[in-house]
Recover the amino acids of this structure.
């Protein structure tokens, strides 16, 4: 399966072509807090050209759906749905918290991971994962210090833009990675495993009924 992955949810604009058998074909990431709308489509064109593929060669499109910047989410989701409609291909959504945590859990799922994205005013978007990618805490927005409430005693790894802030409350953290955006390769890998039952839409954790994505199925593959 060939997939086009897109991420404009946080502090980067990223696109990649990924093949489920061959791996990464082409990718580009541009750090940015604003300007995703202007940067994304030219970036996709460059990545597709580097991959020497047409949209007819792509089997699906994956896009980060949040939590993240309201404007960034709208840019990415709108682009993914528009391209999918034009190319008659399915589009799938990948949450930013899942994409942040996935590489750490794939490397070692015996130590819990908390993905935390700065939501300002000592608040964070957060989700905690345990063994096998099991959700210890569903995705939510809450005071930063509460991220540790459901994680068992012992080592824990922190990743995301609020990781260093959380580390101030967590002397048992064994890894602190404050990257501002997920790795686009992991957005692609999760997108390959994602269900195509519904088109992607922005995930706003303050909205009623928001459902976090699980990644246990990914680790079992």
């Amino acid at each position: 399966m060939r997939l086009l992955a897109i991420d404009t949810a946080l502090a980067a604009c990223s696109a990649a072509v990924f093949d489920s058998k061959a791996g990464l074909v082409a990718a580009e990431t541009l750090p940015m807090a604003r300007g995703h709308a202007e940067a994304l489509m030219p970036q996709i064109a460059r990545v597709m050209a580097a991959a020497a593929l047409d949209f007819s060669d792509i089997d699906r499109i994956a896009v980060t759906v949040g939590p993240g910047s309201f404007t960034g989410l709208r840019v990415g989701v709108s682009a993914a749905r528009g391209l999918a409609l034009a190319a008659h291909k399915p589009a799938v959504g990948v949450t930013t918290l899942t994409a942040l945590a996935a590489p750490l859990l794939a490397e070692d799922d015996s130590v819990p991971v908390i993905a935390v994205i700065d939501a300002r005013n000592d608040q964070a978007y957060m989700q905690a994962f345990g063994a096998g990618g099991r959700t210890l805490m569903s995705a939510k927005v809450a005071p930063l210090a509460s991220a540790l409430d459901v994680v068992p005693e012992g080592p824990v790894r922190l990743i995301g833009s609020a990781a260093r802030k959380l580390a101030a409350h967590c002397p048992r953290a064994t890894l602190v990675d404050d990257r501002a955006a997920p790795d686009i390769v992991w957005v692609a890998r999760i997108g390959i495993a994602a269900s195509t039952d519904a088109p992607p839409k922005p995930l706003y954790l303050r909205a009623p009924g928001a459902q976090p994505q699980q990644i246990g199925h990914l680790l079992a593959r």
Remarks:
- Confidence is low (pLDDT under 50) at residues 207-212, 217-221.
- The chain has two domains: 2-96+181-219, 97-177.
- The domain at 97-177 is CATH 3.30.420.40 (Nucleotidyltransferase; domain 5).
- Residues 70-87 form the longest helix (18 residues).
